[in-house]
Amino acid sequence: MDQEQPGKPRNGSTEPEIAAAEWLLKEDDKPQTPAQTPDAAGPSGEVFDLADSSSSDWNLPHPVSVTPGVSRPKPATVSTPADPSALVPEIWSRVGEWGPNLLLLGGWGAFVAGVIYVAVGQEMYSLASLMLLVGLGVAAVLSYPILITLERPVRMTPEQAVRDYYAALSHHVPHFRRMWLLLAAAGRVSHSFGSFEGFKGYWTDRLATLKAGRAGALTPLVFEVVDFKSDKSAGKSEIDGEFTVRVYVRGKRAEGPIHTIPCRISFARGPDKMWYLENGMLPTPRPSHQA
User: What Rg do the C-alpha atoms of the chain give, in angstroms?
Assistant: First the structure.
């Protein structure tokens, strides 16, 4: 019996003999090509294109490189000016300044007119004439706060504001209401007062202290503001200023000031673009040494 040779077909068959086992373990030298990813298809076989990675819908923020030991710059903060209506909730106005005086004057005028009308109707002409004279005299007294404040307080600069404030104090009867209206919100609250009535009481006592031994109770004092210094106020809502207040006795200015008082206060710009004082008090005076 002939011996079978390897690789030769058996029984005359043309099919090749199964390869030896070592061929199964031999790696194919031909590199395998990765399968192409097919486009996503819907249930009906429709093909959808994948979104392009460069599309604007896929734009993501780029990573920020941070250098060790170097802090990233913070965005600059812009400081906004303070709200003028918060700094000065009540601005100066003629109605606010003269309102109470006009009401009082109008009420007195109506009373006098009524009395005169009744007196004339009863043919009491002497009483009517007397009432007319008395009425005019009292009306002049009631009009005094109006007559001393006919000039409007234009305060385009802090210096003008402080000058108008102390000018309202330089009268036989100081115009406390104008002074009150020239104060910002911060100037209306202190350890000495917190209301308009308290403000009047403070300045009544203050004037008595300034006059003590220097002037009579009915003699007015004159307040002069000199040596005013401050930064430029353009574009600012608040500013600091320093000045000196010289106090004179009316009619005796040639003798020099009886008090020289250095002051340093803040000012606030109101909604009307005018300046208001944030401190309505006067420091303890320093007696002037006269030659």
Answer: 48
